[in-house]
Each structure stands twice: as structure tokens, then as C-alpha cells.
Amino acid sequence: MYWLNIVLLGPFRTLLLVLTCVVLVLSACAEAKTPVQMRIVDLSHVVQGHIPYPPAETLTQIERSADGYAQALRIGLRSGTVAAVVAGSESRPTVDLLSPQDLVLPAVRIDLRDRLQDAEHATIELADVQGWERAHGPIPAGTLVLFVTGWDLRWGDPAAYLNADAAGDPAPPSLSPAVGELLFTERGVLGLGFDSMAKLPVLEHRSHWLLLENLTNVEQVPASGAQVIIGALKVQAGLSAPARVLALVPEVGDAPGAPSIRPALSAATGV
């Protein structure tokens, strides 16, 4: 009789086990988050000859084939969208010595266009950063801080972009010493980015940090949550280098304007 019970109940036990597994899988699927997709924002200007240059910078020269395609390039290390390593109190590495981890950073964006876009002589003040932190909380350590000035709209007019002073030096929006002290000493950020040239005070910081200049489209980056990929040319012993800079912005679900990475790449390559 005991053997008969095992034989008869065996199939029911198997069915019960299968149903239990199905319920567990369905529960897990119901609790799973919607897959995260990425919107990709290109923060880089096109490399071409007619662009704003810092004083004494090598002018960009592009040799073209008979059908108009670029085939050779001469470019200065501070031309176009640029990544640079800025010295602190310790010796700094050059761009070729930066690790991949140095070149992929979480970012916050501080939008100051309403005050700086049309200003000829303006400074990024401590109150600007404090206002952002009141809305979003303290800037996390290890962050890249992106400042939106609106000056990238001047890129096509080198004289307006450089905004040279009486001595002929560029006069973009400047960073106050108090902002540098807060961001590096108190917050521990790893870099700064500007959609203009950078005019910085002397920052007494214990180690090197990254500076991004001449960005564009930074207003399309959210106030927080993006990752920035800094594709700096790996120039031996270079303190700066032209860079292709991309922001990866996570967007949950199938919201309009939130294509996945694969379709974005496929559209560019035709794959």
C-alpha cells in the first residue's frame, strides 16, 4: 500500500513542483524593473579648421582627397573639445597614463545659462553651486561637474567665443576660488567640464584632476544620473588632448526619445 501511494502521488508531486517553479518565475518577472535604455548625448564639437583657438595654439589643418574626404590631420592638443590633466600639489600623469576608470565618470550638470549666456565678464560663484545642492543634495565625491554657460552657441564666431580682453587673452566665464575649494576640498570631485574655454583660479588640490573644455550640448545632460565617457586621444606625454566626449543618460522603459545604445550605433554604421 505504501508503494502504491508513492506511485500514485509521484506525478502529483512533480506537477506541484513545476507549478511552484512557474509561480516563482512569474513573481520574479513581475517584480523586475523595466530594462534601462540609454540616450546618448554627443558633447563634442566637430573638428574643422575655422574654430576658436587659444593663444599660440597650432591651427587645425585638414588635407582632403580629390572627392573631399579628410585624409590627413594636423591639430593642436588644445584644439576643439579638449580633455586635460590639471596639476595639484602632486605630480600629474599625462593623458596617455590615465586609466580607463579615469575616463568614465558619473556627472552632475549645473545650468547657469540664464546668468552667463549673454554676459561678457561673469564668474561662476559659490551661490551657483549652493543653489544646485539645495535642489539636488550635496555633490557626490568622485563626480565630474559640468557647467552649462551657453557659450557653445558662440562657437561659430571665434571672436565672440574667445571674448579677448585688452591683453588679447580669452575671457570666458571664470570659476571663483570659493567654488574650487568647495568642489575639490569638501566634495572630492574628480573633474570639471565647461561648454566654453576654462578660466580657473589657482586650485590647491592634493592630486590631479580632469578638465574638459569646449563642450557642447551639455544642457541635454540631466542634473544628475548620467555617465560621461571621455575619449581623449592617447597622446604620449600630452598634458591635454582632443577628445570625443559622450554622455550616457539612463531612461527607464520605452519613453519617447529613449533609444537603446544598439539602435543609435546601428543608425550611424548602417548595420
Gist of the model:
This protein has 271 residues and is α/β, with parallel strands linked by helices. It is 25% helix and 25% strand.
Structural write-up:
The protein has 271 residues and is of the alpha/beta class. The chain folds into two domains: 1-32; 36-269, Glucose Oxidase, domain 1. It has six helices and twelve strands. The strands form three sheets. A seven-stranded mixed beta barrel has the order 4-10-9-7-5-11-12. A two-stranded antiparallel sheet has the order 2-3. The longest helix is centred in the first third of the chain and has 30 residues, at 2-31. The protein is globular, with a radius of gyration of 26 Å. The protein starts with a helix and ends with a helix. The model is unreliable at 1-9, 14-19 and 254-271 (pLDDT under 50).
Structural topology:
Blueprint: H1 2-31, E1 36-42, E2 61-64, E3 70-74, E4 82-86, E5 104-111, H2 113-116, E6 123-124, H3 126-136, E7 144-148, H4 158-162, E8 174-175, H5 177-186, E9 191-194, E10 209-213, E11 224-232, E12 240-252, H6 261-269
Parallel strand pairs: 5-7, 6-8, 7-9, 9-10
Antiparallel strand pairs: 1-12, 2-3, 4-10, 4-12, 5-11, 11-12
**pLDDT < 50 runs, ≥5 residues:** 1-9, 14-19, 254-271
Q: CATH-wise, what's the superfamily of the largest domain?
A: Putative cyclase
Number of strands: 12
Number of helices: 6
Which structural class matches the secondary elements?
alpha/beta
Bulk shape: globular
Gyration radius, to the nearest Å? 26 Å
- Strand residue content: 25-35%
In CATH's first tier, which class of the largest domain applies?
Answer: Alpha Beta
CATH architectural type of the largest domain:
3-Layer(bba) Sandwich
